[in-house]
Amino acid sequence: MSRFWSKTVQGLTPYVPGEQPKMARLVKLNTNESPYGPSLKALAAIAQANNDSLRLYPDPNSDALKATIADVHELEPNQVFVGNGSDEVLAHVFQGLLKHDNPVLFPDITYSFYPVYCNLYGITAKTIPLNDNLEINLDDYVATKQNGGIIFPNPNAPTGRGLPREAIRQLLEANQDSVVVIDEAYVDFGCESCIPLINEFDNLLVVHTLSKSRALAGLRVGFAVGHPALIEGLERIKNSFNSYPIDKLAMVGAIAAIEETSHLADISRKVQATRARLINQLDELGMQTLPSQANFVFTKHPTKDAAGIAAFLREHNIIVRHFKLPRIDQYLRITIGRDEECNQLVEVLKKMFA
Q1: Over the stretch 264-312, which tens digit does the pLDDT of each residue have?
Q2: Which of 234, 261, 288 is the last residue of a domain?
Q3: Shared domain check, 151 and 58
């Protein structure tokens, strides 16, 4: 601690990202990155843009990228906001759309950046407990009429459980006086997107990332879609913070990746197939795994301690995510890797459980 820290800094408990260790022959199943590489068209576009033009600032409005996103999702460019990864987009969402007198609502077990944003921006929050099956119960949100907004991932993280679009439609119909933000970081792995509802509800904002199903975690591009008035609010925050959040290489790479929908479909299909296979293998080992619509599974053993399992896996150069939090401290979140990586995971678990 420094005497030069502001009171804001002194009161922060920062978000802790997934570990990025530098280990040889590592099987890295802890940060939900894609096990497959980016679109070849995206890589080619980035290489082509790597030229003398980098001496110039990028387009501050990212017009070409917004137009591409809008075209793919049958929206208008003024319904699209882009940022330096979905985390930056979400940061602007909390400050620009969720900071009100009434508390923002989100699950007690969810993306752990949400309470960090609340603390950073002085936003009052109220957590809504997941049910005994670690599911989001939307009736609990409808019952809390006085709120400054609602946000949750769909599918939720770290549980991987998703909600159908029709259920979220009913939430939107019952909660028309505040913003509802659906964080769809993992939606492409088997969940229904709420983007088709954008033109029906002026209080709906949907956030996406290119880090997962587009395999571009290293590029840092995220976006939000919603009513033009919501987008304008985010633009006001962005242009008071950083007018150039998307660099030229990220912009052209993102455009190419979004246009190549076949690559997205291929990655999604492969991950879902491996996920189904891994869940069956974990079941055979006696693990108890939640249904997942994400590119990870949330699982526990009925008698083995989760921290001990994670430590044993690490000894064998496999890392997974363990959250030391109430209600889920006996669960492990395991990213879906390639088939050979998941097979290696299962073989190590067999040794432990033998």
Answers
A1: 999 999 999 999 999 999 999 999 999 999 999 999 999 999 999 999 9
A2: 261
A3: yes
- Please, where are the H alpha helices in 162-260? 165-174, 228-238, 248-259
1 belongs to a structural domain: no
Length of the chain: 354
Q: Give the CATH number for residue 326.
A: 3.90.1150.10
Distance, in Å, from the CA atom of 37 to the CA atom of 217, rounded to the nearest integer, reads: 10
Joined together, the tokens standing for residue 149 give 């907004």
Place of tokens 């976006």: 223
Count of the separate structural domains present in the chain: 2
Looking at the fold, whether 248 and 281 belong to one and the same domain comes out as: no
Sign for the pseudo-dihedral over CA of 149, 155, 156, 158:
negative
pLDDT(23) > 80: no
211 contacts: CB under 8 Å, gap ≥ 6: 33, 85, 86, 185, 217, 219, 220, 222
Question: For residue 327, what are the domain limits?
Answer: 7-37+262-353
Rounded CA separation 210/198 (Å): 20
Instruction: Calculate what percentage of the chain has a pLDDT beyond 90.
Output: 94
DSSP per position, 34-66: -SSPPPHHHHHHHHHH-SGGGGSPPPTT-HHHH
Question: Which of 261, 289, 308 marks a domain boundary?
Answer: 261
Flag whether pLDDT at 71 surpasses 90.
yes
Q: Are residues 231 and 313 in the same domain?
A: no
Q: Which two tokens stand for residue 46?
A: 């980035």
Residues 293, 270 within the same domain: yes
Cα Rg of the chain (Å, integer): 20
Looking at the structure, tell me whether residues 245 and 278 fall in a common domain: no
pTM above 0.90, yes or no: yes
Phi/psi at 163 (5° precision): -115, 145
